[in-house]
Each structure stands twice: as structure tokens, then as C-alpha cells.
Design a protein that fits this description.
The chain is α+β, with helices and mostly antiparallel strands and 160 residues long. It has 4 helices and 7 strands, in the order E-E-E-H-E-H-E-H-E-E-H. Strands 1, 2, 5, 6 and 7 form a 5-stranded antiparallel beta sheet that branches. It is elongated. The two termini are 33 Å apart.
């Protein structure tokens, strides 16, 4: 059993406490050959009608992206959906689709020239990350020191 967890879209519960940790900017991700990769900033309506790689429907990140698109009046054509960011990135590298993913999770692919991350025009999307821990379990000194270290660090955004 773990003492701490770092999770996206954290939820407190009867036995679980949450400490907000960081907010990650979400960007439009595409292969460098995709037309959207050539623009400086994506307006939400630029995504209307595009082939889109989504996350699995039961994931909080999918519900957040769906809500954002719906609020912006945007309808994408979901061609595939996956349960993990690495799988989404692999599908995007094929070049015909776009997605919305955390910018921080694409650093390697951007550096290698496999993907491009284009900022969303405001209002954008943020993926919250939090630290979860058991309300019932007392933290030992090492765990508390690690927690203190995590909290001392600034809450950097993905673009920094």
C-alpha cells in the first residue's frame, strides 16, 4: 500500500485527502506534417470537424476535454480512443489526427520532432495534478519530508 500518490484530476474521499500540486497546460497535439501544427495558436473552432484521438470515455481527462469542446460549440470526429497518453501520442505521430493533451507530457516527442504542441487560445484547458494520501494512516518522517519537498516546489505550469 502506498503512502502518497500523484494523480491527475484528484478527488478527495472519505479515506483520501488531496493536496493540489500543479496545473498543467493542455495543448493541441499533432504531427509536424498536420496543417494545424503550422499555426501559432489554435482557436477552439479550428478543431471543428477534425479527426481527433480521444481518451477513453470513463477517464476524467476525456470528460474535461469533451466538456471544453461542447462549451465552445466544437464537434470533432473521434477516430480512436485510448486509455493512456503514450498511446494517444503514438496515434498522433501517424499524422492525420489531432488531440488535446498535457503539454508537459509531450516534451520528448517535441524535442525529437515527432509531435508539435500548439497552445489553445483562451479559455484553454488545465489538467490539475494533486497529491493524495490516506486520512487514516500516519505518515512516517521520510514520507512527510517527501511531501514537504513536493509542496515547497513552485507549482510550475507546463510551458515553463
Amino acid at each position: 500500500k502506498s503512502d502518497l500518490g500523484l494523480v491527475s484530476y484528484p478527488n478527495a474521499g472519505k479515506d483520501i485527502s488531496v493536496l493540489p500540486w500543479r496545473e498543467e497546460e493542455m495543448v493541441v497535439a499533432a504531427a509536424p506534417s498536420h496543417p494545424i501544427a503550422k499555426v501559432g495558436t489554435v482557436k477552439p473552432h479550428d478543431l471543428d470537424g477534425l479527426e481527433f484521438i480521444a481518451f477513453d470515455p470513463e477517464l476524467p481527462i476525456r470528460r474535461d476535454v469533451d466538456r471544453f469542446l461542447r462549451e465552445q460549440g466544437v464537434a470533432v470526429r473521434i477516430t480512436k480512443h485510448f486509455d493512456s497518453i503514450p498511446m494517444v501520442k503514438e496515434a498522433l505521430a501517424l499524422g492525420r489526427t489531432v488531440s488535446i493533451v498535457p503539454a508537459r507530457m509531450m516534451k520528448g516527442e517535441i524535442a525529437e520532432g515527432k509531435l508539435v504542441g500548439v497552445p489553445l487560445e483562451s479559455p484553454g484547458l488545465i489538467r490539475p495534478l494533486g497529491i493524495i494520501y490516506s486520512r487514516k494512516k500516519r505518515m512516517n518522517r521520510a514520507v512527510q519530508a517527501f511531501l514537504d519537498l513536493l509542496q515547497e516546489a513552485e507549482m510550475p505550469r507546463a510551458t515553463e
